[in-house]
Amino acid sequence: MNALQNGHFDSTTALAWATFTENLHACLRSLPRGDYITVTAAQASPGERGVRPYIDVAATDTGALITVAAIPSLLYPDAPETSSMDVQLVGFGWLNRGKPIADGSVIDLTRTDSRADTALVAEMITRAFCEIWNVPHPSFLSVWGVAADGVSSGPRDLQRGLVAPAPETAMPLDRSETPTEVPAELGSLQALCQLIGRRVDPHTVRSVCTDGDLDELKARAVALHRSAAGQARRSAAAGRDDSVAALANLARTWLSVARSIDAAMTVARHACR
Fold first, then answer.
1. pLDDT, tens digit, for every residue of 233-250?
2. Are residues 98 and 221 in the same domain?
């Protein structure tokens, strides 16, 4: 299913991505130390990457999350656009070289985040598969969990419903920034703005926000923009370079959402005159 149909966004696809992202966030919040998950596109066999785009997330003993992403130009060296894809990956916050493999080459990039930034990590994983690897729908992704004890490993279904994080391992978040509190309409618009990299047209806003109060949704989008921008500034001041670019991108996305809603409200006002 394409995200854009007849020039307008498919809200069903946006909702699918929003659900996947929220479930991934819940999964990462409760990921036990020593465990990791592998997200791959068109995975060939359970639990194995194969020659496929992949992103791994491991929970370290210190509580930090280390995210490892395949370098596009090394995964597909003969593809014409992989160099620009490498640049995008760095722009999304994967700044550090991964560990060399047996032949000494480095095939992936890493980023390190605190457990409090799991929402951001989930957001950037979704963006990487959508914008870098051009995955059209989360049904093309496979998620496999690997437990430290080797017993509870297996597939993770992050595409239906909402996965509740385990309360004993979930880390506290700022309640004002909890993704599950974002209205569904905003989640869909955010997914769209991420996919196309700009604001959406008024027709799409009206189709997604059929029963929503546009004034309230705009105010919420502005608040989320300011929150992400503030986090970006604090991360920059603290020298957390891995998070700055990703948070800045998130802030721009929420600003695009707010501007999209504002444009739809302007069109509606003119239509009433």
1. 887 777 776 677 778 888
2. no
